[in-house]
Write a structure and sequence with these properties.
- This protein is of the alpha/beta class.
- Helix content is 38%, strand content 14%.
- The protein folds into 3 domains: 52 residues, no CATH class; 344 residues, Aldolase class I (TIM Barrel); 44 residues, no CATH class.
- Helix 11 links the parallel strand 13 and strand 14.
- Helix 10 packs parallel to helix 11, helix 11 packs across helix 13 and helix 15 packs across helix 19.
């Protein structure tokens, strides 16, 4: 069995000539002289390194196609017929609408979330920028955290830099304000992330001192790739500006031959790359302390799907520095731009890294050491996955991280909203009616909630809110069935492994071994 899809993918706009392929290489079983080369190898012969990346850049998000040996579908949620935890065991009270999904994040548990979801860092890609207002308005009115990703100031043409440090960035200010404009009742938070280039430019210092941001996030990496952030640039002057600001830009936009080739149309895009960081315990702890002294009330860390020893470092260093939130991102998750083969073939997959995170956090907790609020991310999209991840990491996992799924909700909500206004609603949605309130299931509720402000709300935000309300009800129903009426009561035995291998990797009991002793005791009449 091949876990990987080779040499042809909609992500790279490539395909095989024949249905029969060689599973080792992904090549057609018969590679014919005279073929135009629609596969990845053939296209690479024409377009070179351009084919490394998913296309078309700027209007897509992508995720791995790799079929990992174990995934969350290899676990089932366990319900029960007796009792209730977190509420009185009364059929009139223990109903799913009464499940409490609120959670508090941080060292002092002073970041309140209405549901256990964090929107992870979305940075300088066009697809994030073009849907930002929709996404963050939806996050804010839903009461969750939104992290502004890396490179936003560096990519902003209007950023003012004095002495090598950011003194003003309209783009970052706009992103912060877009969230704060809709934040309600002190739920959620807007956080600004920093990578190597951001640190050199003093982005977090600017955000703390000028934008009244309370939360900042240091970034070691992400699940989609194990190198720095990347985007495409179609403007020569901007490519030159980014090189001056310290980014790696390919090809060199200051080379006269490259400039001539660009102007004559030989190529149309530059690549902007961020550098990789160099982590040490001392520098990390010092930086956390420095940020607190600068006014940061909450310090987060996001790490990627690196090897297990790096995960151990992330958890241990976060414990020593007593940071507020650690996000661990698994391999294969979504991105606006990553090397396609890297996205598919590097890193620790979700179930494995989630299980390791639990093991390492549990080790520290049993020694009496501080464990930060941990968020797990990596392709999570629906309520059953949220429940399973919370159970896999209980009691240390406080929320799940999501990016691609809510961004999808924002894009679809925006598109359908535009179609309603244009009177060109597709039949698929036209069957529900013709108005905003008829099409979006939560629009009427939002209208009553927001009153006159409802008219200001982007339809993409209505889409995000409506999607999250679906997750809210779905998760409440699953928790009710497990008789767990608050998040703190979710435990590892609320799920069972469906295969021996899944049980071995996760430490979750195999379904045929679950409750074995208790069941035998009941059958023998020793207990009820």
């Amino acid at each position: 069995m091949s876990y990987s899809k080779l040499n042809a993918s909609s992500a790279t706009l490539t395909k095989n000539r024949t249905e029969d392929i060689c599973h080792l290489s992904g090549l057609c079983a018969t590679c014919v002289d005279g073929c135009l080369g629609m596969c990845e190898i053939g296209k690479s012969a024409i377009r070179g390194s351009e084919v490394i990346y998913p296309q078309p850049f700027g209007i897509i998000t992508v995720a791995s196609q790799k079929n990992y040996p174990i995934d969350l579908s290899h676990f089932n949620i366990m319900g029960t017929a007796i009792g209730a935890r977190g509420i009185e065991a009364d059929s009139d009270k223990a109903t799913f609408p009464n499940v409490d999904l609120e959670v508090k994040i941080g060292q002092r548990r002073d970041i309140k979330l209405k549901l256990p979801i964090v929107f992870c860092g979305l940075g300088s890609t066009d697809v994030a920028k073009n849907n930002w207002e929709e996404l963050v308005a939806g996050a804010a009115i839903s009461g969750t955290i939104q992290v502004i990703g890396e490179n936003v100031c560096g990519m902003d043409n209007k950023t003012e830099i004095k002495g090598g440090r950011v003194s003003h960035s309209p783009e970052l200010k706009w992103r912060v304000d877009a969230y704060k404009n809709w934040q309600e009742d002190d739920y959620g938070a807007i956080a600004v992330q920093s990578n190597v280039e951001d640190t050199k430019l003093g982005v977090l210092e600017y955000a703390l001192s000028n934008l009244e941001v309370d939360a900042v996030e240091l970034k070691w990496g992400q699940g989609a790739k194990d190198i720095g952030g990347e985007v495409k640039i179609t403007n020569l002057e901007k490519a030159q500006l980014l090189k001056k600001r310290g980014y790696i830009v390919l090809p060199d936009p200051e080379d006269t031959r490259v400039i001539n080739d660009f102007k004559t149309g030989s190529f149309k895009e530059f690549e902007r790359h961020s550098r990789i960081g160099m982590v040490t315990k001392e520098s990390f702890i010092d930086r956390v302390e420095e940020l607190r002294n600068l006014g940061a009330k909450h310090v987060f860390l996001k790490t990627g799907a690196y090897r297990p020893v790096d995960l151990a470092r992330a958890i241990k260093y976060s414990s020593i520095a007593k940071i507020d939130m650690l996000t661990v991102d698994a391999a294969g998750g979504g991105t606006g731009m990553s090397p396609w083969r890297m996205m598919n073939e590097w890193g620790i997959p979700p179930v494995e890294i989630f299980s390791l995170t639990y093991q390492y956090a549990d080790l520290l907790a049993k020694k009496g050491e501080y464990v930060p609020s941990i968020v797990l991310a990596g392709g999570i999209a629906l309520e059953d996955q949220i429940f399973k991840v919370l159970a896999l990491g209980a009691p240390y996992i406080k929320a799940v991280g999501m990016s691609r799924a809510p961004l999808t909700a924002a894009m679809v909500g925006k598109t359908v909203g535009h179609r309603i206004l244009e009177g060109e609603l597709p039949v698929y949605y036209g069957r529900f009616g013709g108005s905003l309130e008829e099409i979006f299931a939560e629009a009427s509720n939002l209208k009553n909630k927001l009153r006159e402000r409802f008219e200001e709300l982007p339809t993409g935000a209505i889409g995000v809110y409506t999607y999250l309300q679906r997750l809210t009800q779905g998760l409440k129903q699953l928790m009710c069935g497990a008789r767990k009426f608050s998040l703190s009561h979710i435990a590892r035995d609320d799920i069972a492994a469906l295969t021996i291998e899944a049980a071995k990797i996760s430490g979750i009991k195999y379904v045929m071994e679950l409750d074995k002793e208790e069941a035998e005791s009941i059958l023998e009449g020793k207990s009820q």
